[in-house]
Amino acid sequence: MHSWNDHAPIYQQLADQLAAQLLDGDPHEGDAMPSVRALASRYVINPLTVSRALQSLVDEGLLESRRGMGMYVRSGARHRLLQAEREHFLRDEWPRLREKLHRLGLGPEDLRWEDA
């Protein structure tokens, strides 16, 4: 079971988690997403919350709804998501991380990229 936090609505947290899975290639572009019912059962949340999360991903251009067939990953979704995530990291996360590294006196020689 997944634990949700109070920092964002549950539908947004689910959308973020599903987007991270898309970024990892699961499911692949062109493939169907799990059904609303399956996702609601997996995450133990209301199907309406799942629908809202999926609609958020449709609005972002990552998924498309095929009438009577469900939601499918759009072609180019992973690339669009990767670009957006990189931009967000460099704009919002990297400056804070760089500041913390500087404050702790850590430099490139202290970081091990290979162990990731």
From TrEMBL:
GO terms for molecular function: DNA binding; DNA-binding transcription factor activity. It comes from the Bacteria. Keywords: DNA-binding, Transcription, Transcription regulation. SUPFAM superfamilies: Winged helix' DNA-binding domain. Gene3D superfamilies: 6.10.250.1220, Winged helix-like DNA-binding domain superfamily/Winged helix DNA-binding domain. Pfam families: GntR. This is Transcriptional regulator gntR family protein.
